[in-house]
Design brief:
- By secondary structure, the chain is mainly beta.
- It is 11% helix and 35% strand.
- The strands form 2 sheets. Strands 6-7-8-9-4-3-10 form a 7-stranded mixed beta sheet. It has a 3-stranded antiparallel beta sheet with strand order 1-2-5.
- The longest helix is centred in the N-terminal third of the chain and has 7 residues.
- The chain is globular.
- It starts with a strand and ends in a 16-residue tail after the last strand.
- The site of one zinc ion (ZN) has 9 residues, from loops.
C-alpha cells in the first residue's frame, strides 16, 4: 500500500503530497544543495517527480530555475517558503525539517536519514553513527 505524506508552506496556501517511499532519505553535504538553499547541508527526502504533486495552490507556487545549476526552487509566492527543490536528475526533494514541522514534529522511521552523502565536501562535521560517503 502506498503511503501518503503531506507538507504545506508556512502560510498554508500551498500543500504538497508525496506517495510511496522516497528514493533517498539522507543528509546531503554537496555544494549544489548548499548554494541552492543556503543551508550547511540538506536533509533530503528525494522522490521521483511523479511521486510528488502540489495538491493545493498549484497557481500559488513559483518555480525558479537556478541560473547555473540544473536545479530549481519551488516556493510559495505569498510566504516565500521553498516547498521542494529539484535536482539534476529531476527528482523532487522535500526537506525533512519541513516534513517534521508539518507533521507534529515527527518524522517516520522509514523517512529518517540513513547516510551522509558527499561528506567529503562538507562545511560542518556531524558526529553521529550514520555511514558517511
Ligand atoms: Zn505560503
Ligand atoms: Zn546535495
Amino acid at each position: 500500500m502506498p503511503e501518503n505524506h503531506k507538507v504545506h508552506c508556512d502560510c498554508n496556501a500551498v500543500e504538497v503530497s508525496m506517495s510511496g517511499s522516497p528514493k533517498v532519505h539522507a543528509f546531503c553535504h554537496c555544494e549544489d544543495c548548499r548554494e541552492l538553499l543556503q543551508v550547511p547541508y540538506h536533509s533530503v527526502l528525494a522522490w521521483e517527480a511523479d511521486q510528488v504533486s502540489v495538491t493545493k495552490g498549484a497557481d500559488q507556487v513559483i518555480e525558479f530555475q537556478h541560473p547555473t545549476k540544473r536545479m530549481t526552487r519551488v516556493f510559495c509566492k505569498h510566504c516565500g517558503e521553498v516547498v521542494y527543490n529539484t535536482n539534476a536528475m529531476g527528482w523532487k526533494l522535500i526537506s525533512q525539517l519541513m516534513y517534521r514541522k508539518c507533521n507534529d514534529d515527527k518524522l517516520p522511521e522509514d523517512l529518517q536519514s540513513n547516510a551522509h552523502f558527499f561528506y567529503d565536501r562538507r562545511i560542518v562535521d556531524v558526529d553521529d553513527a550514520l555511514p558517511k560517503r
